[in-house]
Amino acid sequence: MKMKKATPTTTPTNLLRDRCQSHFLTLRIPVEPAALDELLARAEKESFSHLRFLDLLLGTQADARRERAVARRIRDGHLKRRQEGVWIKHRYSDNSVKSGEVKLASGGARGSPCARSQRS
Fold this sequence. Notes:
By secondary structure, this protein is mainly alpha-helical. The protein has a domain at 13-88. Helix content is 62%, strand content 0%. It has 4 helices and no strands. It has helices at residues 12-26, 33-46, 50-91, 96-99. The longest helix has 42 residues, at 50-91. The model has no long low-confidence stretch (mean pLDDT 74).
């Protein structure tokens, strides 16, 4: 009697896992395969609901992305203020503020408190 060699077979679970990993790459969601495997094992052991599993899987990524976005906005905001400050200092360095010739960049509306011109 001949014995068949044991060949590693791909189970439906492995195919589904690989497919999900491919979806994460397509959607640009950075999920490490080891982290996914760990969470899958934990979910199976602790009988997580589908929503609980998704929350644990995507929640940490979403939180990290929000934190990076806030940090980037804060960093960019400080740079813009500095650049605007330089522009304001340069724009009004000729003492035009004292002479009353300050106008908005868009021209300002007549009678607007921001659009002061040489009125008698």
